[in-house]
Amino acid sequence: MAEVEKGRKPSEESTDESGEEDSVEEPKLKYERLANGVTEILQKDAASCMTVHDKFLALGTHFGKVFLLDIQGNVTQKFEISPVRINQISLDESGEHVGICSEDGKVQVFGLYTREGFHENFDCPVKVVALHPRFSSSNYKQFVTGGNKLLLYERNWLNRWKTSTLHEGEGTITNVQWRANLIAWANNVGVKIYDISTKQRITNVLRDNVSLRPDMYPCSLCWKDNSTLIIGWGSSVKICAVKERDHTEMRDLPSRYVEIVSAFETEFFISGLAPLADQLVHLYFVKENSDHMEEEFRARPRLDIIQPLPEGFEEISSDALTVRNFQENECRDYRLEHSEGESLFYIISPKDIVVAKERDQDDHIDWLLDKKKYEEALMAAEISFKNVKRHEVQKIGMAYINHLVEKGDYATAARKCQKVLGKNMELWENEVYRFKTIGQLKAISQYLPRGDLRLRPAIYEMILNEFLKTDYEGFATLIREWPGELYNNMTIVQAVADHLKKDPTNSTLLTTLAELYTYDQRYDRALEIYLRLRHKDVYQLIHKHNLFSSIEYKIVLLMDFDKEKAVDMLLDNEDKISTDRVLEELRDRPELLHIYLHKLFKRDHHKGQRYHERQIGLYAEYDRPNLLPFLRDSIHCPLEKALEICQERNFVEETVFLLSRMGNCRRALQMIMEELEDVDKAIEFAKEQDDAELWEDLIFYSIDKPPFITGLLNNIGTHVDPILLIHRIKERMEIPNLRDSLVKILHDYNLQILLREGCKKILVADSLSLLQKMHRTQMRGVRVDEESICESCHASILPSDMAQNFSVAVFHCRHMFHKECLPSPGTIPGVQFCNICSAKQRGPGSGILEIKK
What we know:
Belongs to the VPS41 family. This protein is an alpha+beta fold. Helix content is 38%, strand content 24%.
């Protein structure tokens, strides 16, 4: 594996080692040396160039050999081309043909699987060669070579090679790249692009730093796609887009032109470049200054990923590579080749070849685990589990749990167990015992499986015993949350009972024991505990498990705990606990008996009628406000008994009601006037009875009491003629607010007159309206046809032969009769009524039409 150091911008400084470690970003690429056959080759020879195809690699050496390698670096073929350095190797798209040029001027183009080929020796070094991408096709047998000039070779129809010069006179051709119909090459002056389809040169991109020697800092060319060329030269980068020229602008210009879409300067010298999606991969040759030496020394080369911008770039990642003998290499000794199909990048140096590839999800997880970012690693594995090959989600999760335990974060570790351990019972039990060993059983208790997957009962019992020793509340919570099937109920009951011997009044333990008894269906024992504790769940327990037979002798306890709930429950279940049984239990607690009978009466006035006599005394003793409503609503209450009790206790209002109900209204009115001295109640009582004699008595009782007279004057105007009262008032008697009372009497009288007149007007208007409606109705015609029948004989009202004489009577009520079927005339001479309507008391329907023929 090649050694890689994560790069850092020169401006970044770290204050301490931990801060630097936290700030390190995840690398974008991973690296490994190309070994196997390559290692042996480079021990005896040195790499001079290499070309990458999706299926294989072609490596040229300084000793003039060309090796075909598989992706792992194993040698598949070897060619002895020349005794001197191989300068460049070119492959077509299919990988079936190869072009090779060497320093001694040899050029060879031949098929890897055929005998066809081209061999030529030039009298000067040939630096570059490039095959047409579709060279395998018979129509594209073309390639170019470059030394001091660029030559194009084309095979004609006679199977002979034709040569033409594309460019010369600007120094040595140092690089050439052919993509589709475009050929790009670099010489000492700059970069040219030639369109093979139109046979036109379309641009000349001059190099920026002319002070650098072209042979020491050669130009790097790379086609990103069929119309985008990337140029790297020295420390300058330019991205050129080949575009079609508008027809209106052509004239004598080429059909295409080049636009530089991005240009920027880099910190180091460029040895190679390649595209990575919309980003760029740069191989840099680095020289650094030493603190102990004045001269610069050669540092490790760097491979950077950058994001090009219109006038600059953004660095994404930077890696320093430890290649063999990097201290002896120059900028021209490094090359960067790439495989478009798999995003593989090959860093070639004379004694080493390093392969860089994009990191996959497994690499991402490796890095996260190495940085102890377990939670992120677990999340990444879960999200991309289909693409992860070297890792298992559960193993990552276990590593995360171990890390959390080591940190002492037991709560998080326990929570993650639920997700990581899943349904693996063995792992669950191992973790439980580990948490027991470190004394953290409480932390894992709430996350134990309790659904379809269940551990051995001993596991749950162990945790319950742990809580029982140290945390009663936590123990109670687990008992409520865990299903009883998880553990041996009797074992836990015995353990709780043992603890209760030490603390018999502990309400938490008692409540929990009641819950355990409930699960064990020993409801009577649970009920005893709930009643003893006055627990709110006692009523729910009784209802849920139908324990009414168990509470027959515990009714007083239930009512002492919550009277309302107890009475409601007893009344809702009268079929299970009879009223007589309840009364027998409550006979020594009359206040509770009253509450029960009162609710029974509210539900049904007749159901407890035989207890009404007893209820009179209970109401009088414990609930006087409800005594009068009870006397009013009950029809089964003995009035004499009630009157006796009310008179004994001097309950005036209740006595007045009973006297009035028994018919002794005068005595009742007398009590209101004499004992209550409340004229308003007396007037109200008189209004309710609507008895003239009572009004006389009321006037008689009030005539010598001026305040009473005022009350009568204000209220009796609509019931008694006020003159009767006014005539009896003694002369010179001072009556409070007399004038206001007289004004009110006159006002009430005027109001009565107005009401009568209004009613009269309404009555007259309604009568007139109804009369008009009746008149309109009686003026309407009545249809008589063959379907009409006589209401008496039920025969058709019209004869079948219309020529015959007939006589028909039709009433306003729409009933029809034959003349001969009519009943005898009524008591009023000359007036005939409908016999049907008269019999049904709908009013006499007088005849409106008589038809004769």
